[in-house]
Design brief:
The protein is α/β, with parallel strands linked by helices and 304 residues long. The chain folds into two domains: 153 residues, Rossmann fold (3-Layer(aba) Sandwich), CATH 3.40.50; 91 residues, HUPs (Rossmann fold). 34% of the residues lie in helices and 14% in strands. The chain is built from ten helices and ten strands. The chain has a three-stranded parallel β-sheet, covered by helices on one side.
Length: 304
C-alpha cells in the first residue's frame, strides 16, 4: 500500500505543529512566527497541524485556545487545521508496510529493560525475546550515518545505531509514536521545510531515517533558538512571566522577532510587523542560541 503524498501545490510549504498539552507560550510563538515568516517570505503557504495523538497528556480546550492565540498574533493558517487524531489509518498503513518489508519489528522490551545509556541493544530485532510478549514496534536502524543540513546549525551527522538504536514507532499503549506520525503527515501535507525549536533537533535524524525507509521526500530543516529564562531553563507553558500572557500582542511579536534575529518594530502593530518581517526575512541572522538577556534587549527595542 502506498502512502499518500500531497504534490502539485505551492513550491514551499511550512508548518507549525503544536501539541495540545497547554496554552500557547512564548517559545511556541517564536517557532510559529519563524516557520510562517520562512514559508511566506518565499511565496509559500503556511499550515497548522495539531498533534493530538497522546490523549493522556492533552489538556481539554488547549487546541482551540492555541489556534485562537495564533490568530490574535496575526498567524492564521492558509488551509484548515489538520488534527492528527483523524489520521490513525495513515499511521497504521505506514507501520504495516514497514513490518511487511522487514524494516520494523515487534518488541517486548519495556523502558526498564534498556541499559543506563538508553540505547536499545537490539534484544528483539530477530524475534521476541524469551519470556516477553509483544509490546511496541520499533523501526530498524543500521550502521549507515544519517546526515542532514540544518539552516542554522549546519551539517549534522548522527549514527542512530550508536545514539539510540532501533526506535519506537508504535508505543506499548498502541498509540503511534511522534517520530512516525510527524513523518507521515509532513509528506501528506506536502511540507517542504520544517522550521521548529532546537529542542527537536535530536529527533531529526530519526525522522530522516523514517523518510528514507518509507520512500518519502526529505524536507529542509531549520531549528530555531530556544527561549530560556535567566537561569538558562527552557521557557515553558508554566512560566509565569510569559510574554504571550503578559504583553500587548505587538510587543510580544517584537520580542519574538528579536529572538529570531530580525528587526523589531512594535510601532507597526502586529500585522505591520509581520508584513515587514516577511518582506525582510533574513535566515542568516537567526542565532543558534539566545542569551539570558533577551528580555532586556527586546524591551529596549520596544522602547525605541
Amino acid at each position: 500500500m502506498r502512502l499518500a503524498v500531497t504534490r502539485g501545490r505551492s513550491a514551499i510549504t511550512g508548518r507549525f505543529a503544536p501539541s495540545p498539552t497547554g496554552d500557547l507560550h512564548f517559545g511556541s510563538l517564536v517557532a510559529a512566527l519563524g516557520s510562517a515568516l520562512s514559508a511566506r517570505s518565499q511565496g509559500g503557504r503556511w499550515l497548522v497541524r495539531v498533534e493530538d495523538i497522546d490523549p493522556p497528556r492533552e489538556v481539554e480546550g488547549s487546541a482551540e485556545r492555541i489556534i485562537a492565540d495564533l490568530a490574535r498574533f496575526g498567524l492564521v493558517a492558509d488551509e484548515p487545521v489538520l488534527f492528527q487524531s483523524t489520521r490513525a489509518t495513515a499511521y497504521d498503513n505506514a507501520i504495516e508496510r514497514l513490518l511487511r518489508e522487514g524494516k520494523a519489528f515487534e518488541c517486548g522490551c519495556s523502558r526498564a529493560d534498556l541499559p543506563d545509556n538508553g540505547v536499545y541493544p537490539g534484544t528483539c530485532r530477530n524475534g521476541i525475546a524469551r519470556g516477553k510478549t509483544a509490546r511496541a514496534i520499533r523501526a530498524r536502524v543500521d550502521a549507515t550515518p544519517v546526515t542532514f543540513t540544518d539552516a542554522v546549525h549546519g551539517v549534522i551527522t548522527e549514527q542512530l545505531q550508536h545514539d539510540c538504536g532501533d526506535f519506537v514507532i508504535r508505543r506499548a499503549d498502541g498509540l503511534p509514536a511522534y517520530q512516525l506520525a510527524v513523518v507521515v503527515d509532513d509528506a501528506f501535507q506536502g511540507v517542504t521545510e520544517v522550521v521548529r525549536g532546537a529542542d527537536l533537533l535530536d529527533s531529526t535524524a530519526r525522522q530522516v531515517h523514517l523518510q528514507s525507509l518509507l520512500g518519502l521526500p526529505h524536507p529542509a530543516y531549520m531549528h530555531l533558538p530556544l527561549v530560556c529564562d535567566a537561569d538558562g531553563r527552557k521557557l515553558s507553558k508554566q512560566d509565569g512571566d510569559d510574554p504571550v500572557k503578559t504583553l500587548e500582542p505587538a510587543l510580544a511579536i517584537a520580542r519574538a522577532l528579536q529572538v529570531l534575529g530580525q528587526q523589531a518594530r512594535p510601532d507597526l502593530g502586529v500585522e505591520g510587523q509581520i508584513a515587514a518581517a516577511t518582506a525582510n526575512w533574513t535566515p542568516g541572522t537567526v542565532p543558534r542560541k539566545v542569551s539570558a538577556q533577551w528580555r532586556a534587549r527586546a524591551d529596549a527595542a520596544g522602547a525605541a
